[in-house]
Amino acid sequence: MGFLMKTQAQYRHGGAPEFDLRRFNLPHKRVCDFSVNLNPLGSPMMVREKWSEFFLAIENYPSIHGDGVTRYYEDRFGIPSRNFLAGNGSTEMIYLVPKVFRFEHVLIVTPSYHDYERASIMAGTKVTRFPLLSKNRFSLSNVNEMIRSLKNSDALWLGRPNNPTGTLMPKEILLELARMFPQKWFIIDEAFIQFVDRWKEQSLLCEEPKPNILIIHSLTKFYALAGLRLGGVVGSAEAISRLRQAKEPWTVNGVAEKIAPLLLQCADYEQEARSLVAKEYKKIFRKLAMLDGITPFPSTANFLLCQWHKTENLDDLMRHLLSRGAYVRDCRNFPGLEEGFFRVGFRAPRENDLLLSLLSSF
Ligand SMILES: Cc1ncc(COP(=O)(O)O)c(C=O)c1O
To answer: Does pLDDT of 211 surpass 90?
Structure first.
């Protein structure tokens, strides 16, 4: 318990502008929140239109293992049900995997989503970080170094694309590492993969499941359904069976189960989202790169990591933005990003334009 208290600030998530409004003594108000990284289109219209129909799902128990979500993964990615386990968002799986597999020592590619580390430590696992560096634009510069570090670990955690850097480790390197180390586990979080250009070629989801790779996947980002909690894990039949045996029943709620199969009919929405993200990325990156005091880092996802060096303290920028109604993700609680990094999740074009003008008016 002491560990959790100590690390509350270290593991804080985005999406909480109230915290900084209080910290800067600013009056409570609605802000445009760029600290979250959800689909800028908002949830699919079909879900909103049919919302009243889902009400009935709350009267009964859902299926024990979230069958409606499993159906989405079967039809969308061709993943047989024996290779998939649905969760209450992918977060449930991030925490279940280390509990069940009882790794002794994991290597986490950082800076990355905090919960890989938190879940590992809570399961009693020793953690070593493998830092990606800003001087290499947060991409893997030396595979041999990773191979050396892997020798002392029994599992690797990696985000593809990685949050908050937006970098995507090439699939071929990853598959080669998994082949080189058949006794080690590779836990790959592809929560943002559907935003990536030509994502099917890049993703591990559409590959034949490998004996030592687990893919964590989320539907909450790409369909902007974070409150619904939708996601799961993909792996070999044997690995999934181990996880299923340890999972609590009914963690996927009945409404989520009803909505997941509907997402199979959202091809136009998906295309529109990817085009929008690609267009906004180009515009935002180009404009930020022209600003004095901000360095944007290349990203493959629907968000962008930037470094602030116009003043010594990122708080100067955070206060400037918040007092004008915009909020970005302060990344200083990510180890390796203490020096003024912040993340921008893309929103609608005119909101992005507003942020760009606030950034340039500092
Ligand atoms: C990289 C990454 N993985 C997983 C998650 C958890 O997503 P969810 O539990 O909503 O599926 C998040 C949420 O921010 C994330 O950023």
So the answer is: yes
